[in-house]
Amino acid sequence: MEIERTSLPGIGLQHVFMTARGRRVGIVSHHSGRRDVVIFDRDDPDSAATTIVLTAEEAGAAGELLGTARVVERLTELHRQVEGLVSEQVPIIAGSPYDGRPLGDTRARTRTGASIVAVVRGGDVVASPRPDFVFRAGDIVLVVGTADGTAAVAALLGTG
Amino acid sequence: MHSAIQLIELGAIILGLGLLGAVAVRFSVSPIPLYLLAGLAFGSGGVLPLTTSEEFVSVGAEVGVILLLFTLGLEYTADELVTTLRTSAPVGLSDLILNATPGVAAALLLGWGPVAAVALGGITYVTSSGITAKVMGDLGRLGNRETPSVLSVLVFEDLAMAAYLPILTALLAGAGLLGGGLALLAAGATISVILFVALRHGGIVQRFVASPSREVLLLKVLGLTVLVAGLAQQLQVSAAVGAFLVGIALSGPLAHDARQLLSPLRDLFAAVFFVFFGLHTDPADLPPVAGIAAALAIAGVATKLATGWVAARRAGVGPAGRLRAGTALVPRGEFSIVVAGLAVGAGTNPRLGPLAAAYVLILAIAGPLLARSADSLARAVAMAAGRRA
Where exactly are the transmembrane stretches of this chain (chain B) (predicted)? Predict the structure, then answer.
């Protein structure tokens, strides 16, 4: 994708690109933080058909939304590409043999082939927990692997 | 009791300007012509002549010019100026020649002499960057492809003013050709030094002025600007140019803060400046120069259309965009009045003031209207061309 950059003395900067479907889109970045999203006219490619004015805050939020959507898209893509890959959420119930024991003790990857990629505890997400991470009852463990592998991890965490 | 009357008059003027400003906002036109009309009404020979607040208004008007140029300088960084000078010198020069010529020629034909000719050339030359920027913003044209060309013409004009004002000041002081040349050299040297400092050592100025307190920042920036403007005036370089250069030397977040702090002051004193100019123009002097003003206005529209056409074509913009660029450049305003104010203050031809007032009144109103109808004009032209073909 080619982005054309032009300086607007006294105002700021302008970036313009052409979408795959043939629309010219521009972003005017004002020194003040204001951002204008400009959609160019189909008939007169020099002039703006619509201009959307965003405050600095709105522009930040919009940028994040556009970016986040891409991350989600990529994840979906990944799932589609790796046929047969599933993710499962396994709770650590009270009485589980691993309540109070570190993750390393489960030797989950060696024994089942599935990986523990995250743990949700009280609303917080611990991504890529280390082997010395100690489980507690109430934790939700996110496991990724084959269907058999994740089921084996669930059994392991439930009964040992 | 004297001061009570002064306060009453001052309050009435500012309140009146506020009401006129509201009218301008309501109809989304530039308030400049309305302020001028208010000045005409309050001045000698007007409907409501003022007597006592003359002194305040006259100092306020000077501060107004300084702040106008200072905030203009704030808009640009030294980098932008140098880049524009390098890339759009041909367009800028054709803009200068095309638009100054009608003014110079008219003054010479009327037998007003060479000094008045230089002044009138300046009056017909400069586009009002304030009105133009506002019109382009209002019409949602900031993203358009012709906009960078229009902006670089404006930047070039502002730089040209930095060289022109000192020359004019020297000529008006009766310095003659040699004195004018010397003034140009002095101005050139001053501008180079300030641009150099701004480009290489901008940090020093920034550090000196910077302060976490808005109050301190306001006082430091305002004080520095007025002080440098005064020194520049003392060196015969023109106060306005000194202020413009201080504005350029400030950049980055500091410029943003300074703009926010000083814009309200600029609005107040600039309004006072326009009123002051109107005050010194007798409405009875307007009708005799109306014909010349109208002729110059028509020429001024044509020459700016040509400038915009050339500038936008260079950027590879189509005919409709070229017409939009031309119409955007038509408005004349604050700087024409600044030039006229200098000339009238120095006692050139007494008809220059009313002529400039009439000229600005016409183009400050007609310019934005033309800019608004540029696209329908372009369609009409295209259809006419199609019929002929």
Answer: 7-26, 32-50, 57-76, 96-126, 147-165, 171-197, 217-233, 239-256, 268-284, 290-311, 323-346, 352-371
Task: Work out the number of other CB atoms within 10 angstroms of the CB of residue B103.
Answer: 28
Q: Name residue, tokens 């521009």.
A: A26
HSE value, Cβ hemisphere, 13 Å, CA-based, for B9: 19
Dihedrals phi, psi of A26, to nearest 5 degrees: -130, 150
- Give the residue on B whose Cα is nearest the Cα of A49: B140
pLDDT at A153 exceeding the cut of 80: yes
Instruction: Work out the burial of residue A132: count CB atoms within 10 Å of its CB; fewer than 13 is exposed, 13-18 middle, 19 or more buried.
Output: exposed
- Mutation target for B interface from A15, A28, A32, A46: give the one with most B CBs within 10 A: A46
Distance CA B64, CA B264 (A): 11
What's the CA gap between B155 and B80, in Å, rounded?
9
Q: Which of B28, B34, B30, B1 shows the shortest CA–CA distance to B16?
A: B34
Kindly state the average pLDDT of the residues B193-215.
Answer: 78
What pLDDT score was predicted for residue B325? 93
- Cα–Cα distance for residue pair B363/B230, rounded to 1 Å: 31
Local confidence band at B379 (pLDDT 50, 70, 90 cut-offs): confident
pLDDT, one tens digit per residue, over A53-84 is: 999 899 988 888 887 665 556 666 666 556 67
Q: By the CB < 8 Å criterion, does B315 face chain A?
A: no
Kindly report whether the global pTM for this prediction surpasses the value 0.80.
no
Characterize B277-309 residue by residue with b for buried, 16 or more Cβ atoms within 10 angstroms of its Cβ, and e for exposed.
bbbbbebebbeebeebbeebbebbbebbbbbbb
Predicted local distance difference test score (pLDDT) of residue B105:
95
Radius of gyration of chain A (CA): 25
Q: Determine whether the interchain pair B75/A9 forms a contact, defined as Cβ–Cβ distance below 8 Å.
A: yes
Element spanning A67, H or E: helix A56-81
Q: B320: nearest CA in chain A?
A: A44
Place of tokens 């358009």: B144
- For B120-162, the pLDDT digits (tens) are 999 999 999 888 888 888 888 888 889 989 998 998 998 888 8
Nearest CA in chain A to B317: A46
Where do runs of H (alpha helix) occur along chain B?
2-26, 32-42, 54-75, 78-87, 89-109, 114-125, 129-138, 147-172, 176-209, 214-234, 239-249, 252-279, 286-314, 319-329, 334-345, 352-372, 374-388
Task: Decide if B145 contacts B377 (C-beta within 8 A).
Answer: no
What is the b/e burial string over B243-266, where b = at least 16 CB atoms within 10 angstroms of the residue's CB? bbbbbbbbbeebbebbbebbeebb
Question: What value does the mean pLDDT of chain A take?
Answer: 83
* Separation CA B339–CA B119 (nearest Å): 7
**B71 close contact with A: CB closer than 8 A:** no
